[in-house]
Write the structure tokens for this entry.
Amino acid sequence: MIATLFTLTSFRIYNVCLAVDYGGSAFDYCKNVAVDYCVDINEIENLTSMSIFPNPADDVLNMNLTFGTPQEATITIVNMAGQVLNTINTGVTTNYNNAIDISALPAGVYMARVASGNQSTIRNFIVE
């Protein structure tokens, strides 16, 4: 097995290909991958707790955020294709508790991204 590591420095679409040898037959699988969130992110230092529940969810996703000092943040719900589905501003607060309507989302895996300044925290959740 050969592993190649790439450092992606800009947000754009990359063509990623995988060559697979399956029982003596070779297959190439290529896919365009949109990179719009980097892996190496600065976690929100002032965020002392973040919970999302239930997980998996179906109609409503509850989100609780606690900050050490009053802070404004933006919550973004993103699908695995990188499409932004919902954006919510928390306002300046130390405790944010909200029920987010997800009833229109099809079953799948999603990301809840909380961003404040140049820092962000991401949690995955499942819609059934």
The longest strand covers residues 60-79.
